[in-house]
Design goal:
This protein is of the alpha+beta class and about 325 residues long. The chain has a single domain, classed as HIT family, subunit A. The chain is built from six helices and 15 strands. Strands 3-4-7-9-8-13-14-12-11-10 form a ten-stranded antiparallel beta sheet, with helices on both faces. A three-stranded mixed beta sheet has the order 1-2-15. The protein has a two-stranded antiparallel sheet with strand order 5-6. A hairpin with a 2-residue loop joins strand 5 and strand 6. Helix 1 packs across helix 4.
């Protein structure tokens, strides 16, 4: 029988549709198209991007030239602009402001066809350090209230270029989805004086049914009420509210956890397109006891349709307990 499950953090309901339950081999997807144009992210084409903001380079190589391992550049077609004032204003009952923000691209590797699951742990760790370095720099700008880091892997997941990259957007507002998590976490903390994510980690570790993997710093699990099949979270075992404030050694542990997860997902789901996002505390409350930063990964296996748009409910055809089993067995 189908189940309705409630996310304990946001209060969002999902339908676990056991009557139409799907195993990994049941998901079909369109083949990826190969893009043949000159890649602006490949070494030797540095002039095709805006000047780099950050680069980890081989000793002796100059800026905006080959010789980099990870490179960060402004997005050539940004969603938000870095220059100007917010100019908040009203128009009757409507509110508006200028589209102020930062939009950057993290070019993760010089290798055009290398997938993140194929990175060495050192390369993955370098990408994480680039995320951290850019967040620490951008949070100095008092106009920004939130910084989102995300990756679209594959055309079906929203990637417009094949070359491996992730993105960062700094916003003058806190996104609604993040605010729902923050508010739910704060409400739980006010009642119990404990972090809800820490309690989830403890309960899931004890029961083991939705745990995928665990190392010295992180646990990988399927959430109790996932929106999508094989939606997976990676959470630090020790409470920390902000990604950029994590102790240095944890980035190595996170690289290990991410590589392990991506390898399992590619094996079980035959290298699917996916999105991942890092949810961290808003900049004006970066250090607190109630929110717990984490990474959310969503393989692109189903489509959001009319029922989801009309209700805010999601229909998930794979119970998280089964998803965890498949990933563990990989």
């Amino acid at each position: 029988m189908p189940e309705l499950r409630k996310d304990p953090i946001t209060g969002r309901w999902v339908i676990i549709s056991t009557d139409r339950s799907k195993r990994p081999s049941d998901f079909s997807r369109e083949p990826e198209r190969k893009m043949t144009s000159v890649c602006p992210f490949c070494p030797g084409n540095e002039e095709k991007t805006p000047p780099e903001i950050l680069a980890y380079r081989v000793n002796g190589t100059g800026p905006n030239k080959p010789g980099w391992n990870v490179r960060v550049v402004p997005n050539k077609f940004p969603a938000l602009g870095i220059e100007g004032a917010m100019d908040k204003r009203g128009e009757g009952l409507f509110d508006r402001m200028n589209g102020i923000g930062a939009h950057e691209v993290i070019i993760e590797t010089p290798e055009h066809r290398e997938k993140m699951a194929e990175y060495t742990e050192k390369r993955l760790e370098d990408v994480l350090w680039a995320f951290r370095d850019r967040m620490l720099d951008l949070k100095k700008d008092r106009r920004f209230r939130y910084i989102l880091i995300f990756k679209n892997q594959g055309e079906a997941a929203g990637a417009s270029l094949e070359h491996p990259h992730s993105q960062l957007i700094a916003l003058p507002i806190v996104p609604k989805r993040v605010q729902e998590e923050v508010d739910g976490s704060k409400q739980y903390f006010n009642m119990k004086e404990r972090c809800i994510y820490c309690d989830i980690i403890q309960q899931e570790t004890d029961s083991k049914v939705r745990i995928v993997d665990k190392n010295d710093g992180f646990v990988t699990l399927e959430p109790y009420a996932p929106r999508f099949p094989f939606e997976t979270w990676v959470l630090p075992l020790t409470h920390e509210s902000a990604f950029e404030n994590a102790p240095s050694h944890l980035y190595e542990n996170l690289a290990m956890a991410m590589k392990n997860l991506l390898t399992r997902v590619d094996k079980v789901l035959d290298t699917p397109p996916y999105n991942f996002v890092i949810h961290t505390s808003p900049l004006n409350e970066a250090s607190n006891d109630y929110y717990h930063w984490h990474l959310e990964m969503m393989p692109k296996l189903t489509k959001v349709a009319g029922f989801e748009w009309g209700t805010g409910f999601y229909i998930n055809p794979t119970p998280p307990e089964e998803a965890a089993h498949f990933l563990r067995e990989a």
